Description:
five-stranded mixed β-barrel, 29% helix, 23% strand, binds guanosine-5'-diphosphate
Amino acid sequence: MNREGIVIRNTGSSFLVRLDDGSETNCRVKGNFRIKGIRTTNPVAVGDRVSVTKAADDADYITAIAPRRNYIIRRASNLSKESHILAANIDCTLLVVSIRDPFTPTTFIDRFLATAEAYAVPAALVLNKEDIWDDDDHELAEGLRILYTSIGYPVFKVSAVSGEGIGELREFLHDKTTLLAGNSGVGKSSLINALVPGAELKTGRVSDIHHTGTHTTTFSEMVPLPDGGQLIDVPGVKGFGTIGFKASEVSHYFPEIFRYGRECRYGDCKHTGEPGCAVRQALEEHLISESRFASYLSILEEIADKDKYRKPF
Ligand code: GDP
Ligand code: ZN
């Protein structure tokens, strides 16, 4: 008899599935679930909706996966040709950012947002550690809030320590499946604990793992939110890394640059500041922010560098 459920943890060799009746079972995989054209290290991902079948040896096997609405992959390692599916069927991805201790550069934020656009996953930002901001930090945070909300990304100012802003964030996350990301030290684990009281105990996390710098696995896990919805945490993963953008596509992943770029009279314009370019005009009128434009250029430069190295000598 088949039972249905959601994959909530990937331990490498097996997958923990929460069945629709609320019970959990450890499963192995039977069958070929490869994505066409992509080599992945894991056939099944956290967030996958699956069918589970009991075999003659009484063990549970994942025998079918429902079509994925979306998924996020990253390269398994720098040199690897294989990819790892971090999560599937997500409603939102949340980047945790800190203005100080540590400082998150806007290029990091913008690369993250561009990658989320490429995956067609809605993204939002959390500015954490509000409790330690001075006046300058408050001003910077408000500047970031205005900038990113004007582009269409919700921004939350919170403190995982004092609880400030957590209520509003909780409302936003209600009934959504949200993938959490953030540089180490920004307070991702603290935020999960603030949102899900007792998460640490329930999931048996070892918090030291986050600080040793040696933890390189990319096993995701799903943490249920008390009022409905769930968080997906991928310990050790900062962002998605840049995926193989083509130079001509990059502007598509910066919504405001794309918007003004459409008005550009040069059909094949890369919008890098050519005279007469509509994006340059929008920059001069402060309709596009300089920091966003700098991030856009940095991605284009990286692609140009890569292409340079790829050329035969
Ligand atoms: P992670 O590496 O992103 O999971 O970060 P942690 O949750 O482990 O937090 C890193 C450090 O920042 C710890 O010392 C936390 O106590 C601290 N921290 C996290 N959130 C806040 C916050 O809202 N305010 C302050 N002052 N410190 C925080
Ligand atoms: Zn242009």
